[in-house]
Amino acid sequence: MSAPQQNGEAAQEAGAPWTATVLTLFPEVFPGPLGVSLAGKALQRDLWRLDARNIRDHALDKHRSVDDTPFGGGAGMVMRPDVVDRALADVADRPGPVVNLSPRGRPLDQAVVRDLASEPGITLLCGRYEGIDERVLEARGVQEVSVGDFVLSGGEVAALVVLDAVVRLLPGVMGNVESGGDESFERDLLEYPQYTRPADWNGREVPAVLQSGDHARIARWRREQAEEITRARRPDLWARYQAAQEVPAAPRRQRRSPRRGDETD
Ligand SMILES: C[S@@+](CC[C@H](N)C(=O)[O-])C[C@H]1O[C@@H](n2cnc3c(N)ncnc32)[C@H](O)[C@@H]1O
């Protein structure tokens, strides 16, 4: 992502909450699910801000058109560069990177999420139809992020996914500061299984170790479970995890010259 001008934490200390500006043809989608629970409460507490703007407001013709047919032929329509450019120019003073949601973008993972959370904010561009004219993406240095190897009908749902994941990492949003550290993808491991009351549910008992009160054993058990699940389900993460576990070889001890009494063969 772009070089941070001021990270999320510093921006908050300076009194400016992390701000998400969303450029979309459907501003009514926002905040949607981000208006409830953790993200919603944080929005109410002004720990972050959300500004959804209608790209169509920048269409100048009487039909307010934002798209046209693709050069070279083919199905569908393409979002016009002039309209998208005016929408971007209107929010050019917003801090943080401009990110277009696109299936061909950098795959979203927890490292990308952490990167974005360390920025002072973000401007998200939501495509529709067949996407956005390439020239405006180039001209404005727009980055691209994908939420997975599948095609959605618009960038709005992808933007909600990005924002949900980022907002929960912003300072003060998660009540229990520790609750992020053990989660899936931290240290390249998926999370261990979780259990709550009742201890016996329909004859299925919670593993005894979790009721032992022995914190060291519990931590060991959880680590082993996390490793087992990651190894079985995500060979890509497992390989990275294993590589990180490899202890660097101890420096070779210098050979001393044999002394009298040393055994020789
Ligand atoms: C129907 S899609 C366009 C797909 C495009 N023609 C392609 O083949 O890559 C319309 C919009 O949905 C959004 N979108 C679809 N899939 C996405 C994904 N996996 N990640 C992020 N955004 C996505 C993008 O904003 C895209 O411009």
Automatic annotation (TrEMBL):
<dbReference type="InterPro" id="IPR029028">
    <property type="entry name" value="Alpha/beta_knot_MTases"/>
</dbReference>
<comment type="similarity">
    <text>Belongs to the RNA methyltransferase TrmD family.</text>
</comment>
<protein>
    <recommendedName>
        <fullName>tRNA (guanine-N(1)-)-methyltransferase</fullName>
        <ecNumber>2.1.1.228</ecNumber>
    </recommendedName>
</protein>
<keyword id="KW-0949">S-adenosyl-L-methionine</keyword>
<dbReference type="InterPro" id="IPR029026">
    <property type="entry name" value="tRNA_m1G_MTases_N"/>
</dbReference>
<comment type="function">
    <text>Specifically methylates guanosine-37 in various tRNAs.</text>
</comment>
<feature type="binding site">
    <location>
        <begin position="147"/>
        <end position="152"/>
    </location>
    <ligand>
        <name>S-adenosyl-L-methionine</name>
    </ligand>
</feature>
<feature type="binding site">
    <location>
        <position position="127"/>
    </location>
    <ligand>
        <name>S-adenosyl-L-methionine</name>
    </ligand>
</feature>
<dbReference type="Pfam" id="PF01746">
    <property type="entry name" value="tRNA_m1G_MT"/>
</dbReference>
<keyword id="KW-0808">Transferase</keyword>
<dbReference type="InterPro" id="IPR002649">
    <property type="entry name" value="tRNA_m1G_MeTrfase_TrmD"/>
</dbReference>
<dbReference type="GO" id="GO:0052906">
    <property type="term" value="F:tRNA (guanine(37)-N1)-methyltransferase activity"/>
</dbReference>
<keyword id="KW-0819">tRNA processing</keyword>
<feature type="region of interest" description="Disordered">
    <location>
        <begin position="243"/>
        <end position="265"/>
    </location>
</feature>
<dbReference type="GO" id="GO:0005829">
    <property type="term" value="C:cytosol"/>
</dbReference>
<keyword id="KW-0963">Cytoplasm</keyword>
<feature type="domain" description="tRNA methyltransferase TRMD/TRM10-type">
    <location>
        <begin position="21"/>
        <end position="239"/>
    </location>
</feature>
<dbReference type="GO" id="GO:0002939">
    <property type="term" value="P:tRNA N1-guanine methylation"/>
</dbReference>
<comment type="subunit">
    <text>Homodimer.</text>
</comment>
<dbReference type="InterPro" id="IPR023148">
    <property type="entry name" value="tRNA_m1G_MeTrfase_C_sf"/>
</dbReference>
<keyword id="KW-0489">Methyltransferase</keyword>
<dbReference type="InterPro" id="IPR016009">
    <property type="entry name" value="tRNA_MeTrfase_TRMD/TRM10"/>
</dbReference>
